[in-house]
User: Fold this.
Amino acid sequence: MDSLITIIDPATLGAGTAIVLFVAILASLALGRRLGLRAIARHGGTGIPPHGSLEGAIFALLGLLIAFTFSGALSRFDERRAQAVAEANAIGTAWFRIDLLPVAAQPPVRDPFRAYVDARIATYKALPDVTAARAEAARASKLQSRIWAEAIAPLRLPETRPTAEMLVVPALNEMFDLATTRAAATMIHPPAIVFAMLLGLGIAAALLGGYQAAADGGLGWPHKFGFAAIVAITVYVIIEIEFPRLGLVRLDAIDQLLVNARAGMN
Assistant:
């Protein structure tokens, strides 16, 4: 799925997949019914023997896969929100601990620190423009090296408090580590084959449903549209939650914590 983001407009990934699935399910229902009618015409009333257990197994497997995929996407969504809170807290802590450095050594640390937080905020505001977001993330990464160099040098000065190193260094480490953790979280998704299987099962279930319904006179259009819409919308919501910021599902409210932390950096 990550490779698709570099090819397909990220903002339309979920909607495009849902539309394709909706059309494919309707087509599969129609094809299944046509195959069922052909079997009836060829073999009479026995052309479509009842296989309720087989259909039930397919639909149960589809429901199970939807449930697990939805649950996993929601779990990862919650983790990303928790990571955003943790980063905002780590940045605030590191900012205050700069006070432990000698007064003259603080401005060279605080200036790139502010620029770093600006870059971190811009990284997520840029989405769904993935290229711009990566550029801001790269800028933040470069600023990490500058902040580290400017903060470590004063720790070796005689006038620096002995406890400063034990407090400043871990705070900066945690701040940088959380940026890496959040970047890694954007790349942690189920394998693409899971999504392919989800789409394939939806289409297969529609094909079997249309085939079996041929013996009962076929499904009405409300049933066809209803089934196709429910499955397509469910898959759309799963993709939106799995890839937040690329569509309608956003994390802007939780990002406000980082904005608030930057506002307090006078």
Summary: The CA atoms of residues 84 and 203 lie 37 Å apart. DSSP finds nine helices and no strands in the chain. The radius of gyration is 27 Å. Residues 52-97 form the longest helix (46 residues).
